[in-house]
Design goal:
alpha+beta, 21% helix, 7 helices, 7-stranded antiparallel β-sheet, 3-stranded antiparallel β-sheet
Length: 292
């Protein structure tokens, strides 16, 4: 069973690691051949994060006007987790022109998002003035900058799951460091996009048998053969193949969110995963599609 923590974490002091040891030790008891063929459990953290007003996660386009993604892409949530990790370990924002978030990306198995709040996109139209010396003339232009405002909802804006294997846990300093980093999250995307973590769960994520499931969490479109239900899809940077921050010529993939843009609400979709491409995991009692 997943454990829930927020204020209780700070009261209890060092985190109990018996849960993590229980599932890692069970992996070690299996033979090498079984480990190679049988899907292994993963460690997950599930955060319920609430936006204060909304966010601005703008697309990389070669124009002055930039619209925003309707839903923050996976790379945005990787960067949000990396902020807390960098603060915890006194890491630099960049090292040799590489974002610190790359450290989190390299140690992450999957990040999946559930939208819990209505989202409305809009743009601010700003007039920019400049002076051209040779012409001795003042010029101006209008630039549209996209933002997304959240609506009213009882639940926090997003529920986000991060999954790690044993190597990823060690690479980020242990499960306690990962949990502390998640609780230190203060924004999603730009510096104005203030957010706060309302609740956190952690524990083992177990692989499930079968190729069909009902999920409300995002996944890559090319990992499934069938989708039944209402969903929203947007093309985003493939964090599996592209470094964080280097997006100019980065490969992109279609990411699916079980979210109805007409009714502006979360949906449940029935999916059938593609054989050899993905598995279904039980993450704290909810089904999530994980790429192999």
């Amino acid at each position: 069973m997943a454990k829930t923590c927020l204020k209780a974490l700070r009261r209890q002091g060092p985190l109990k690691t018996c849960l993590l040891r229980s599932w890692t030790s069970s992996c070690k008891t299996s033979s090498t051949d079984e480990t190679m063929t049988k899907p292994q459990p993963l460690f997950f953290i599930k955060i319920h994060v609430d936006l204060h007003w909304g966010f601005a996660s703008r697309r990389t386009v070669l124009s002055k006007s930039k619209d925003s993604f309707l839903i923050p892409p996976p790379t945005t949530f990787i960067g949000a987790l990396a902020y807390g990790h960098a603060k915890l370990f006194n890491g630099p924002e960049e090292l040799d022109s590489v974002s610190y978030a790359e450290k989190v990306r390299e140690n992450l198995v999957s990040v999946n998002v559930k939208v819990n709040t209505p989202l409305q996109e809009y743009s601010d139209l700003s007039r920019i003035w400049w002076y051209r010396g040779r012409e001795r003339a003042v010029k101006f232009d209008a630039v549209a900058l996209g933002k997304v405002v959240k609506g009213i909802s009882e639940l926090p804006s997003f529920t986000v799951t991060y999954l790690f294997n044993d190597d990823g846990i060690r690479g980020l300093g242990g499960e306690k460091a990962i949990i502390t980093s998640a609780l230190s999250m203060i924004r999603v995307s730009s510096k104005e996009s203030i957010a706060s973590v309302k609740k956190l769960e952690y524990g083992p994520a177990w692989p499930l048998e079968g190729e069909k499931a009902i999920t409300s969490y995002s996944f890559w479109y090319d990992l499934v053969d069938e989708i039944k239900g209402d969903y929203y899809a947007q093309r985003v940077v493939d964090y599996k193949r592209a470094s964080i921050g280097d997006y100019f010529k980065a490969p992109e993939r279609m990411h699916v969110y079980p979210y109805d843009i007409k009714r502006r609400c979360t949906t449940n979709v029935e999916i059938k995963v593609r054989d050899g491409r993905a598995l279904i995991y039980d993450v704290g009692g909810e089904k999530v599609v994980i790429e192999l």
